[in-house]
Design brief:
six-stranded antiparallel beta sheet, two-stranded parallel sheet, Outer membrane efflux proteins (OEP), 16 helices
């Protein structure tokens, strides 16, 4: 028995070095949300430490439920239906990675079969089984021995022929065989496919001796041009990683949008309550003016027309109050829809916002906000990862233009015998080793499909580049417009506040002049309307400033950090 000898030809390296790859413009790491906010952003304490969500027993209290902005945000993050849908996105995206990695997992295949082959022999074959003259054994020495052996062989043929005859006397060949094989193979990132194969078979026939065979072999197929190197073969895995990162950014975008909507809805509810209070104040003014006119009419200092005008004004302001009450209810329903509180009947819930409509000026720099948006906006990160995938696809298509040139090789041993032990008897015997190595070449003559794929990949790459530029421009315009809106609303706050003070003093003067008959009732009602409108403008400017600031932070993409909202995906990326 010889020792195991591996052919010298297999000293050729089976694994090629990975091709040097060009750095990608964007990767999941380069588009990740910054883990530490830059200077100028005051990161808030975690939201859970500052607020509690709406409790399930809130509706049982049968009274308005106090609600802060942070409590509204926390409730929405826990209960919002659209976020329940978006929350599955990263989990779905993460499934792309093991699916792509599975291309390099080893696989095993096996087969086993058994069968029987029973057939008639040809007439020529059957007629020759017993033909020929019986050899003479007359003679001496070696001649007699040869004749005896020939006679024995002829008798064996006659017995086999007799055995092969079925009941009708026709010659039949009956073969039973069983065979099986098992193969373990793996595709490597370098473009090599390696395998280990084992096979065994057993053949039993009535015409010849039994045949038992066994074999094992190892082999490889290494691409040298098309499909060679990790740079090309890892493209699908890198694209899967990009898609997984995109799903996390999409989820962040959904959380950012929901947070923005909840804040706006909360402040709209605050505004609705303030409008309701102002409408109550306006109705009080109208009722007081009506009472004064009725008193003056009783003493002959007013005419019936003044009283009628005051009554009409009171009716108008009563209608405005009804509208304001409906506005409160509508804004409550809009906020409940976003919060989706865990209640049996949430739609009848009455929410009472606790944050006052106060506005504190915040520094605004459009250029700094644009820089923040380029780092934090999830839409831009998704567009950049689309471009990264387009770059990878172009690399794959360019490699596809190369011809297929592979070096292939195999080595193995085979065992064969008439007994069952023959399946493994010679598998470790170096006398029965076999090997083969060579090259395989294949290429299309016109390369029409390959060139079309490469052209399409280049066009899609250009399209992705222009999409990134378009998204960047749209985001910059959005941020700068949001900054303008913040500055405008802040300037309006000062003007509207001054208007309230002036209209209040004007009403006091008008009422005094009306008491002494120097102004008409209509003049007083007009001043009252101006005062009510100035109050509405003032509270609207303050709340719209807060909303404009919220919209600016949302346009920057920093609203979550400023509200103390951290996503697990962000922590994983940072």
């Amino acid at each position: 028995m010889r020792s195991f000898r591996f052919p010298a030809v297999f000293c050729i390296p089976m694994v090629l070095a990975a091709c040097a790859s060009q750095p990608l413009r964007w990767t999941p790491e380069t588009v990740a949300t910054p883990g530490t906010p830059p200077a100028g952003i005051e990161k808030a304490a975690p939201l859970r430490e500052r607020a509690e969500a709406v409790r399930p027993d809130a509706a049982e209290q049968d009274k308005p439920v106090p609600l802060s902005r942070d409590a509204a945000l926390l409730t929405a993050l826990l209960q919002n239906r659209s976020l329940e849908v978006a929350r599955l996105g990263p989990q779905i995206g993460d499934t792309y990675i093991p699916e792509a990695r599975a291309a390099f997992d080893p696989s095993i295949s096996a087969s086993i079969s058994t069968g029987r082959d029973r057939r008639l022999l040809s007439s020529t074959g059957s007629s020759t089984l017993g033909s020929g003259s019986t050899p003479s054994i007359i003679g001496t020495g070696a001649g007699q021995l040869a004749a005896l052996q020939a006679t024995i062989g002829a008798l064996e043929q006659m017995l086999a022929a007799a055995k092969a005859l079925d009941e009708s006397g026709r010659p039949v060949q009956d073969t039973k065989d069983t065979q099986g094989d098992i193969t373990v193979q793996e595709y490597l990132p370098t473009g090599a496919q390696v395998y280990l194969r084992g096979a065994a078979s057993a053949t039993d026939t009535n015409m010849t001796a039994n045949d038992y065979q066994g074999s094992w072999s190892v082999g490889f197929n290494q691409s040298l041009l098309r499909g060679a190197g990790a740079r090309v073969n890892l493209i699908s895995l890198k694209q899967a990683g990009n898609r997984a990162a995109q799903s996390r950014h999409a989820f962040r975008g959904a959380v950012l949008e929901t947070t923005h909507q909840v804040e706006l809805a909360y402040w709209n509810l605050v505004l609705a309550y303030e409008v309701f209070k102002i409408r109550e104040f306006a109705l009080t003014l109208a009722e007081e003016q009506l009472k004064r006119d009725e008193d003056r009419l009783a003493v002959g200092k007013a005419i019936e027309g003044d009283v009628m005008a005051s009554r009409a004004e009171r009716a108008t302001r009563t209608a405005d109050l009804y509208d304001a009450r409906a506005g409160v209810r509508n804004q409550t329903i809009a906020l409940i829809h976003l919060l989706n509180p865990d209640l049996a009947d949430p739609w009848n819930l009455t929410l009472e916002p606790t944050n006052p409509p106060e506005a504190a000026q915040a520094p605004v720099s459009p250029d700094e906000s644009v820089d923040l948006a380029r780092k934090y906006r999830p839409e831009l990160a998704e567009a950049r990862l689309d471009l990264a995938n387009a770059d990878l696809e172009t690399t794959r298509a360019k490699n596809g233009l190369l011809p297929q040139l592979d070096v292939v090789g195999s080595y193995g041993r085979m065992s064969r015998d008439e007994s069952k032990s023959g399946i493994t008897k010679y598998l470790d015997d170096g006398d029965f080793e076999n090997y083969r190595i060579g090259l395989e070449f294949q290429t299309p003559i016109f390369r029409r499909a390959e060139e079309a794929r490469h052209k399409r990949a280049r066009l899609l790459q250009t399209q992705a580049e222009r999409t990134v530029a378009s998204v960047e421009q749209a985001i910059e315009a959005e941020v700068r417009q949001a900054a303008v809106e913040v500055e405008k609303q802040w300037e309006r706050i000062g003007a509207t506040h001054e208007a309230v003070e002036s209209r209040t003093e004007q009403l006091r003067v008008a009422q005094g002049r009306n008491e002494v008959g120097k102004t008409t009732n209509l003049d007083v009602l007009i001043v009252q309307r101006d005062l009510v409108q100035s109050k509405l403008d003032d509270v609207t400017a303050r709340i719209e400033y807060v909303e404009a600031l919220t919209s600016l932070y949302a346009a920057e993409g920093t609203l979550l950090e400023r509200r103390g909202i951290a996503l697990e995906s962000d922590e994983d990326e940072s």
